[in-house]
Amino acid sequence: MNITTLIPDENGDIEWPDVDKDRRIVITLGSFDGMHRGHQAVIDRVVELAKQHDAGSAVMLFDPRPAFVHAHGTNAPEVDADALTGVGERIAAMEQAGIEQVYVVRYTLAFAEKSYIFFLGQLTGKLGMRTLVLGADAALGAGRKGDVHAIANLAAATGVFELDVVDDRGPGEVRIPRDWKPQMPAEWGEPVDPLANANKAQRRAWSKKHQARPVRTWSSSNVRYLLGNGRIKDADAILGHPHAVTGEVVHGEERGRSIGFPTANLGTDITGYLPVDGVYAGWLVDLGETPKNDDPDALAGLARAAASAPRWPAAISIGTKPTFSEATGRHERVVEAYCLSEDWLDLYGHTVRVEFAGFLRPQVKFDGADELVAELKRNVETTRQITAGERN
Known about the structure:
Elements: E1 2-6, E2 25-30, H1 37-52, E3 56-63, H2 66-72, H3 87-97, E4 101-106, H4 109-112, H5 116-127, E5 129-135, E6 139-140, E7 146-147, H6 148-158, E8 162-166, E9 173-177, H7 200-209, E10 212-216, H8 220-227, H9 232-239, E11 243-250, H10 255-258, E12 264-266, E13 278-289, H11 296-304, E14 311-319, H12 325-328, E15 334-339, E16 350-361, H13 369-391
Parallel strand pairs: 1-4, 2-3, 2-5, 3-4, 5-8
Antiparallel strand pairs: 6-7, 9-10, 11-12, 11-16, 12-15, 13-14, 13-16, 14-15
Helix pairs in contact: 3-11, 8-9
InterPro entries: FAD_synthase (IPR015864), Riboflavin_kinase (IPR023468), Riboflavin_kinase_bac/euk (IPR015865), Riboflavin_kinase_dom_sf (IPR023465), Rossmann-like_a/b/a_fold (IPR014729)
Domain Riboflavin kinase: 238-388
Protein name: Bifunctional riboflavin kinase/FMN adenylyltransferase
């Protein structure tokens, strides 16, 4: 796979690379955050059409996410905490699907002001676009005026490229509260859909109470909402793979080692969307020593290594350690993973991938270390059962 980074100038213009225009390309574009099943359907269609037409397969990947840029403008924070996945993980998934070329475009407000007609002309003239593949409700260009209907009309009028629309919406729509905030479940065990057994009247009442808005079932917005409510299995089903975050293992307070549960503690520089506070079952994957640079190719290589890297079942904690935080004075949000391994794992300085398979319980304050240890033993056994099922 070839990876090319493109940075628009202050006017939003891109200096396009020299390409062999004799070989036309099938291309799609977007942020592809999470690489969920809808994204996978679009990517697979690009690869399929490229093979049919003996063309190249390409993706134009926008980074940061357009929604993040438009929400914050020039005052955007350094880290997009709502991004489900890092660029490297998205690129690695595209490579696995058979994509040959990824153009990583630095998304800016100036770039967003280009009209969809101008932009598609650039793709055709500069990159040799033969076919553009888009999801059913995609829209691009200034004011998002380039929806699939407008682009279909443009393709028919010019005859220089084709538009192929993929139904990437999944099983209809769901409704999520308009201004929802992460909410830790109060009960032990995987949360269920609160509307699972509701009738139409109850659904309308819930929707009105929460000012709910419709979103596609297969959407990054829905996945974030599910993760923010501890519904890991529902989120993973939409993603088609376990949700994961990556980070470097650092030294912590070593409080877990003192009670017989040594954990791998992730530093504050975490890539991926953190689910709501709680204890989870999942996996810890050792990706090796942390790379010295963070260019897209290096990050993709790190994500690529996950397929063959050592991995262990793990009980994962996200939160502020309520049992000990008052004593230490530390209330920062931390991620810890206790690996179900008979051997001590020295992972300091390594980048690890933490994958989530299920919600176990909320974070609660125990009366002391003995009560905490008893609960941790139960969490480990449940983790063993869940991950054994995942393995099979």
